[in-house]
Structure formats: structure tokens, C-alpha cells
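User: ok so my PI wants both of these folded by tonight, can you help

Assistant: No problem, let's get them done. Here's the first:
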Amino acid sequence: MIKILDEDTIQKIAAGEVVERPSSVVKELIENSIDAGAKKITVSFSRGGKNYISVTDDGEGMAEEDAKLSFNSHTTSKIESIDDLKNFNTLGFRGEALSSIARVSIMEIHTKTEEDDAIYLRIRGGNLEEIMPKPRERGTTIIIRNLFFNVPARRKFLKSDYIEGDKIKKTIINLAIVYPEISFSLFHDQTLTIHFEKNSPQDRIKEIFGEEITKEMVYIDFQKNGINLNGYVSMPEYMKEKGRIEYISINRRPVRNYLIRSAIRNGYGIPIKDRSPSFVLNLSLNRETVDVNVHPRKEEVRFSDENLIYGAIFDTIRKRLGIGTGMFIKETGYEWEMEPTAFWQLHNSYILAQTKSGVLIIDQHAAHERILYEKIMRGKPSSQKLLFPLIITLSPNEYEIFKKVQSTLTKFGFEIEEFGERTVRIISISSFIKDLSEYEFKEILYEIKDAKPFSDVAKILSCRGAIKQSDKLTPEEMNTLIDKLFATENPYFCPHGRPIMIKWSLEELARRFGR
């Protein structure tokens, strides 16, 4: 039987969509403080925010009548009609947050404007219990006690105090990155754990993540077609498996967005699996081209022209990193001392190259692999005839694989004919492979049997044909290899996504030697 829910149940369900956990309460309250013009925001919490949260600001405050309306549903000072959703410039706009929080907690509001007297209100489960004058300076303090006290099922599913507290800290950092002109303080159990004075965007990032991390990133900037993009991304050699930084804001609103993350990662031009770039990206758009009203907590957005946004970010990343242009080397201090004597080979496997700012260590196999891969992808592979054809007898399974991949081998320059029962004669091989033995041919069969795209086979053959670890190179050969590497579209990663080079700056070397 279908039943109509009572109003109290409806309101608590609605509150649950906005107020997911203590950190979402902190986020909503800080956003209100920012919208009120605060320059200083202080947050306190205990028991992971489950028992106590306090947010104090020095913003414009509320008059008594506004304060009494503020915790009611769909009351807001930010918009008046549906048309305003197209062009509002505040973080909050729906009039849901404060009322949703008030319904599932014991709330205290203490506020004062420049002109009006201070007022104190106490609300329990959405119902006003107390209102009285109470002196204070201009601004607002909102205290939340016993979150979800009247929705025990929701409170039961909160994580540990540590996890919930950590989410609050991340929320503060998210907003502090986007609003460096605001001072933020965070107290956990009355102990100061975070304090950021107002700062420049660059210094705020350095303050949060440390100088070492910021040295691993480069600044990007793009302005065109109504898109204003700026921020920091990892230099290619500093991409990480763990501990990477990922922050996106759109019109100064911290968000999650798969499209933007994909554009950034794909801009590096490699199949990123085990490692990813760090980034702090700020995107400003015409407000009519982005919809922030698609998520209950305003954490996701939708664009009217996704291709335009993706292309702008993708192209900016590639241009700044010099992928396909070679410009990145000069811009980030990789300028070469090009005399052959500036190169050394370590254990016949790695090339040490002196730069004006330090040293590069280059994996010679990965470097040659990248060169061959791009050469294969640019044009049809040619053939080289063997001096003596190679005759190989295959097992039943190997012969079955050969029949499956024969046409693929032909595309890559192999000339192979059948030469009796399960026997083949190899007349020519791909020009990218130096030589071929019976064992190597059988290995290639197994490697390419499940490779479908042309690029997958190109990766296999470029690996096969590349200079090997332990191959000794002359200074001239090293010089040629490096020249060819930096003429490729992406000299920083092999086709499989592994790094080709590691950079050590003179500063890092000095620090390691205790200077």
C-alpha cells in the first residue's frame, strides 16, 4: 500500500540529502561565512564533529528578523526567482543548508550586523526554543550540537571520530586553497591544528602543501572564449602513485569533475594507470555556461559545452608541458650542455646528462622505446630482408596463434610464408627490430595474440627493437639518442607509461649532502 509521508519525515529525508556528515555541515557553514564577506573564519569541533561544531566569522552578520527566517526551508538572501539561478555569484543559493542542518541537530545562532543589536537563537530539531539579546562583535557564530540526534540511523553510519575529523580538515583545506584572501583557523578539541593567514594564491598553496611539493609543479594559465584557467600541475617526472594532490574549483567553488580530471590526465599523453599528476586548478566561466544545481551538496557541476572545456584544459596542459613542442625543457631549467662530454653512461643502462640546473638520469631503453613507438605510429613500418630466411617449426598452439596474427605481422613489415606442416619461413622482419631468433619470434606471437589496437602492437615492437639495458653506447650515440628523444611528442614517458627520466636539481643534491 502506498502511503503519504508525514511532513517531519519528508523534511528529515531532505535534510539527509544536504547534510551527509559533519564535514558537509562545516562546508555549508563556511560557505555562508564567505558569502557574508568574512575575512576571518574559525572552526572548532570535537568527537569528529558529531557532538560539537562551531563556525565563527567576522562577516556582515544578520539582523534579528533575518536570523529568525534563516533556519526555515527555502529562505535565502541570494536569489529571488528561478532566473537568478543563471547568474548568481554566491556559494549558497537554495536556502536549504541552514534549515537542513537545524532539523537534525541542536543549533545555536549568535549574530550581529554593524547597525543592529546582537541576537542569540537556539533551535532544536528545526523548532525555535529560545531567542534573546546577547552582546558580541559584528559577525556570526553558529554552533551545532549532537548532529543527527533525532535520526539515529544516520548517526549510526557515521565513521570513526578520526575519519570524520579528517574529512573536516580536508574541507577546510579545499576552501582555503580557493580563498587565500581569507584567514582560516581550525581547532580540534580546543587545540589549534590548522591556521592560514590571508595570503597570495601561490603562497597559500606553498603554505598548505610545502615548498618541496610546489617545486614539483608548474604554473599554467589560459584565457580565451570566456574561459579563464589557471593553477598548478605536476612536472611529468613528479607524477606519483600515492599522495598526489587533486583540487578543482569552478567559479571559486570546490568541486569534483570527471571531465576536468580526464582532460588533465590525458594532457600528459600517456596511459596513466599506476601514477597520476597532482594539480590545483581554478576555472572561471560565464555563469550561464555552468550548472551547479545538479548535486544536493553542490559538489558536482555540468557544462553547457563540455568539448570546449575539455579542449581548453587538454591543450593548455600539453602546451605548458611541451608535449609535442619541446618548449618545456627550456621553460623549466632543462637546458642542455650539448657537448658530448656532458653525457655519461651508468652501468651501460642509464645516461647521466648535465643541465644548467642539475642533472637528468635517462633510462636508455625507455627513451629509445619512445622514439621507435612514435616512428611506428607516424608511418607504415618498412621491412628488412634477412640474409638467410629463418625457418621455424611451430607447436599446434603456436601455429594457431600465428594464423590469428599473420595479417597483423604483415602490417608491421614481416614477410612470412608457410613452409610445410606447422612450419613457417620468415623472409623479412620489421625494420624496427635489429635481429630475430626462433625464441624471440615465438615470444612475439604470444605477446601480440591479444593485442587489438595498432598502438598495442606498436608498443610491443618498439620495446623489442629498443636499445637494451646493458648496451654500451658511445658519447655520440648518447647525444643522438637524447636529440631524438626530445624531438618526440612526449619525451617524459615510455609508451607503457613508465618515466623515461628523473631530474635532480642542484638544490636537491646540496640538501642531500647536508649543505
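One down. Here's the second:
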Amino acid sequence: MQLDAPRLAFGGHFVRLFLGLLVCLGIWLRCPVNLLFLYEQPSAKPEKLHTSAFACGIITTSFPTQYCVLISRIYSVQSKQLISSLPYFPDSAALFSAIADQAWAAFIDSGYPHSDQGRFDIIAAEPVTTLVTHGDITRISRNGLVTHSSEDPFDLVQRELLTDTTKSQITPLPFNGGAIGYFAYDLARRLENLPEIAEDAEGIPEMMVGIYNWAVIVDHQQQQSFLVGYDCDECRWQQLLGMFSQLPTHTDSTPFRVTSAVKANMDKATYTRAFQRIKHYLKEGDCYQVNLSQRFVADCEGNPWTAYQLLRKINAAPFSAYLNFPDAQILSSSPERFLKVAQGAVETKPIKGTRPRKAYPASDWLQIDQLRNSAKDRAENLMIVDLLRNDLSKTCTTGSVKVPTLFAVESYATVHHLVSTVTGVLAHGKHALDLLKSCFPGGSITGAPKIRAMEIIEELELSRRGVYCGAIGYMGFDGNMDSNIAIRTLVHSKGTIRFWAGGGIVNDSNVEEEYQECFDKATALLKLLDRLRTG
């Protein structure tokens, strides 16, 4: 993002008088007045800049010159926005360790420095509001008060973000406070009438979202870090600045240990029967693609944050996350973006098509070439691209949905993936949560047509998916959003750790190849649990 940044040329007293009158006029008209200062000099020291008595702000610097926007504290009539620069540390996991054990601590992780495919990390804790959905009821906790609602969970989160419109100020950062959390695959039951056949072995909420008034944003491309927030008192703000201006000297994390063998809920015979049933549905015309997955589980003990730190080294991915939520801890190393909204520009990047990595470069390049030219994988990918074009069209401006990239190969620690990109422009009056709701769950992990594929999944998969194949991400007060498809994701609760792996089945799928693909995708997670195994 690049903005013109003219130097303020007026005398200091005249400017303060003018801005004060402007604020008073806004109050008289009952209109919020948000004031953003733009400067040219990135070297200015925030402590030397003048503080206006008319709530016009203390201005900090240290945004990169490409941004040309120098913001430290932006005040409005109703809400006070704060942005301060922090020292940059290349490994945000070390920074997050200071708060990793706090309930509702959240880490949206680009995978850096173990991967350079992402750019921003987000660290947040102490949500002012939490929303937890079990079945038909959402529990909303705010300032010690608890209420319950049967309204649509997506609408409830959107309402929290829109309660105070003065928090919607645009900054060059991807997140300026707002919602962070997960939307489980089974939250789709609030959107569609699905059968209830598979066992709910997870027993955790279908949605857990916190509304965060402060966050640390780390920009690895520009090697800059910022603390952003709303309505923080001066004492707490200084505490946060102190906490995140240095790495913790020590942490007391309990080691994490896997205490049993990893068990799958399908043996090969069970998987084959489900596979053949899907083939029957495909031939009958019910669907043209169905995703089939299996669940893996192991007993464990200790602090899952320790396990996540190892996971991000083994399988660094650009859409990773660690959520330390009260009912469960989520350890995600997802390579797949679900939905991104940046100032109204929409992007989704479905994955369909996988090959395992090879140790020798020549063999690895051959895998890439085979994947790129595979008619089967290209057909699977195109099916999901068409599904997502349709989903995006529900909330995007007519004619804006495009496919700028088809069948690109992206490489990760253990696999190569075939990835396409679909873009659009969010329609006037639509919110990022409207987009998420209209596309949920992602078509790349259901099949097509989506609803019939989900009915078949419920029939043939032995356990509910829970967080797997849902979405993890952030939705800002400013309307921006980024989310993943929760694949390559582990869930920890009640002394067990679980993950899932699967793939799309089409007419020309081969059962041996599809069964093996489950384990190709599970390689990194199986390696993680094996390294954490005791005895």
C-alpha cells in the first residue's frame, strides 16, 4: 500500500486550533471524526513530536518508507487507536512464548524464518469478548457478563466487529484489532440441513472466536514490528511495549510427549469400502468429486505449545496458526489460503493435486513436472475453481470474479501442490463475514456439488471432522480478513492429539493411489508425533 504523504506546512498553533474546531464540529454534528497524520520524515522521533490537547494524537514513526504513513496513536471521539513501533525479531515464536500459556492467546504464523512464503505474523491475547458456539447456542462473554444467543454465529461475530464504527480506520497493516479464531467444519450445520451419522468424537465447540483490542504485527518483508490497539490505558500499553520489546529470557513450558501409538480410524479395507461407495455415487451422477479423509489419534501429555514449535520447524507453512483456547489447542501448519479480503479485494487459492517430495533434485523436479501436466489433477483443480467462482459471486460485484492463475505448482516441506487463484471485489454493503459465510466450508475439502458431497462425507467418514477442513484466521475491525483451510492441523484436548488427512475422489481415481496420498499429506504430522513419542 502506498499513500502520498505531504508535509504539514501550517504553523503548529494554527493546526492545533483547526483540528480542535474540527473535532468540536464532529461532536456537535454527532459524527465521529477520525484524524490520520501523514508525514514525509520516517526518521522523526515520536517522543519529540507535539501532543495535542484536542485528542488529535501522538504520532509515531517507523513505518517503512514504502508506506509513507507514520502513525502512533490515532484518537477519535469514541475510540482511541494506538500504534507503536517495536524492535524486530525474526522468529515470532520466541516472542509469542511470553504469552503462549495464556487462555485465548493466538498466533497467526507465516512460518518465517523456516519458510519465506509468508510475510506477516500476528500475536494477540486478552480478548475483550469471546464467542463460543456449541450446537445451536453461542455463549458470548464480555466484561465478565455472559449472554447466550441462538442467532447465526457468523452474524454474531460480524456484529461485534461493527459495534463501534470508529475502529474501522484503515492502516497499512493487515490487522488493527478484531476477531481471531476458528470456524470448525461442522459449523456448516448452521448453514445447511445435513444428516447426523458420523460420531462426534471431538466434543469441542464448532466456533471459538475472540475479539482482540490489541495485537503485535510482525512484517518480515520490511523487518518491522508494531503494537496496535484500541482503548488501552496508558499503563497497560507501556506494559505491552515492554513485554514485546525483548525476547523472554526463559519459559516454563512443560515438555510435550506422545504416550501411545498413532491410530487411524480407518484401516485399508474400511477406506476401500468408502472409496467404492463414492465411486458408485459418482457414476450415479450425485457428484463429480468427493473428498474422503481419515482421522489419526494418539494419547499425549504436556504443553502443546512445545509441540507446535517443533511442528513449525518440520513443516513450516504460510497459513499456520497456534490457538491456545480453553476447550482445545489448535496447531495448524496449513499451506492453503481459504479467503482473503484486503480493502475489498478478495482472493482464494484452492489446492487440488499433490505429489510427495523426493530427496534428490532431479527426482523432485520430475514430481513437479508430472503434477503440472497431470490431466486428472488439473480436472480436479478446475472443478473446485468453478465451485469457488460460484461461491465468490454470491458476495462479489457482478463481473469482478476472475481466475488470474490456473494450475501453479507450490512446493512445501513434504509435498508439492497444484494451486489456482480466484479473485473478486467485495460488493458494496457486503462484509468479509458475509463472504466467509457464503463460501463456508471451502469447496477444496468437500467436493462438488458441495452440499451433496458433504452428505456423502457424513455417511462415509466414521468421525466428525471438527476443526479439520474448517477455517482459522482473523477478521479486522477495518473489514480486512485472511483465513486458511484447516488442513495439516492438529487438535489437542483431554489428553489426546488428533489430525486428519484425505483427498478428492473422482471417476478416474485409483484406490491405491488415493490411500497412499493420505499418508503423503500426513507425513509431516506423523513425523512430529514420532519424534515426540516416549518409550
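The longest strand covers residues 289-301. Residues 1-17, 22-77 have pLDDT under 50 and may be disordered. Good luck tonight!
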